[in-house]
Coproporphyrinogen-III oxidase (Methylomonas lenta), 460 residues
Amino acid sequence: MMDQSIKFDLDLIKRYDKSGPRYTSYPTALELHEGFGELQYHQHIVKSNAAGGPLSLYFHIPFCDTVCFYCACNKIVTKNRVHAVPYLENLCKEIAMQGVLFDKHRTVNQLHWGGGTPTFLSYEQMKQLMETTRQHFNLLDDDSGEYSIEVDPRETNDLTIAQLRELGFNRISLGLQDFDPEVQKAVNRLQSQEQTFAVLEAARKEGFRSTNIDLIYGLPLQTEQTFARTLDEVLAYAPDRFSIFNYAHMPSRFKTQRQINEVDLPTPAVKLEILQMVGKKLTDAGYVFIGMDHFAKPDDELAVAQRQGKLYRNFQGYSTHSDCDLVGLGVTAIGRVGDAYVQNFKELDQYDAAISQGRLPVFRGVELDADDKLRRGVITQLICHFDLSFHKIEREFNIVFADYFATEMENLHIMQDDGLLSLTANGIKVKPAGRLLIRNICMVFDKYLAQQQQQFSKVI
C-alpha cells in the first residue's frame, strides 16, 4: 500500500511559503500566446485524431446570480436569465464546429460543466446543451463515463438533481466555502446548512457516484475554531471528496476581491493553524491526502487511481483520465489537444464575434517542445504520486536524468537536507513533510518560473 500520510512541519512551511503555480498544466497558462491560433489548433487536432484515444470535454458556463467577493473565476454576474440565451446558442454552434473536427469513433470518457454556475441554465437549456453535445460527440450511454458538474446549492434543489442525473451526470461538486454567518456576510455568499445538505442527500438518492464539497480557508473573519465547526458539520455528512483551497487575495488582478476588507483577513499564522487542523481532522476521519488541497475517501476513484499510479492532473484539477485529450468549449475555456494547449477568447463579445463569423473562438495557445513534455512528465508524476522513477523518465524521453537536470538536482539535495524528500540513484520520494509543499518541489523543474513568479498565489 502507498503511504498517503502528511506531516505538518511549521518551520518547513514558513521557510518554503512563497508564490508558485498550481500546475494544472505545464507549461502553465501564462505561457499561452496569441501567435498560436485556429490554424495551429486544426493541425494538432489532425495529429490527435491520428493518435486516437478517448476525449474529455469541458464546458464553461460563466453566469452567476450573485457575486462572491473571493471569486477569481471568469464569470458574468446577472439576475437576468435571458442573458444565457445568446451564449447558449453560440456554445451549441461551437460544439458543432469542434465536433466535426474530431473522429466520431473517439468516445467521450470524461465531461465536466464548470463556471460560473452551470445550474444558472434552466432544465430545458441544460437538456439542449447535452443533446447538442451528444449529436456532435460520441457520448457514452452506459453511465461508465466520468460526467461531472459544479453546482451552487442556492441554485439547486431535489428536482434539479434528478434532472442532472437524467441528463447523464454521475459526479457532483457542491460549492460551500464556509458556514460561519459572519464569514458568509464578509464574502457575500449566504448559504444555509439546510440548502447544502439537502442537495448532497439528493445527489446520493439519485445515484451520483461521487460527491465533493468545496471549502476555502483564508477568508475574512475565519479562525481555526470557526472553520473547524464548518468542517465538523460537513464531515457529519461524509462527502466522498473535499477540495479545500487556500484563498489567494489578489485584488489587483480580480476586481471583485477589492470588496473584501483586507484587515479582516486571517494572518499567515492563523491560516497555518487552520491548515494544520484541516489535515488532522480529515485524516483522523479516514480521508487520504490526494495532494494540492484535495482529500478523498480511500475507496474513491481518485485515491484508488493514485495508489495504482494512474492519477493525472489537468485544468479541472486531479483526474483519472490521463489518456484523454481535453476539448475546451465556451468563453475562456482551455483545452489540451495533442502536444498543445489552446484557450478560447476571454471576453464575451470576442467569443460572440468569432462564432458569428463561423470561426473557432481560439484566442491563444502554446505548442509544447521536447523539453516542455519532459518537464511536464516529471512534474505530473511528482504532483500526482509523490515519487519519481528516474529510469522511467530516462526510458521515455531518452535522457540521462542526472545530467539533464544537473542544476535541479542541486536544489533537490537542499530539499533532501530539509526533510522534504529523499533522493536515491533510482529516483525521488516525497516525504510526508514534503507533501503539503509539493508545489515547491515541482517548481524546481519549471524553467519558466523566474520571470513569472509574481503572477502566482502563495503555495500555502
Q: What stands out?
A: The first strand starts at residue 55 and ends at 61. The longest helix spans residues 268-284.
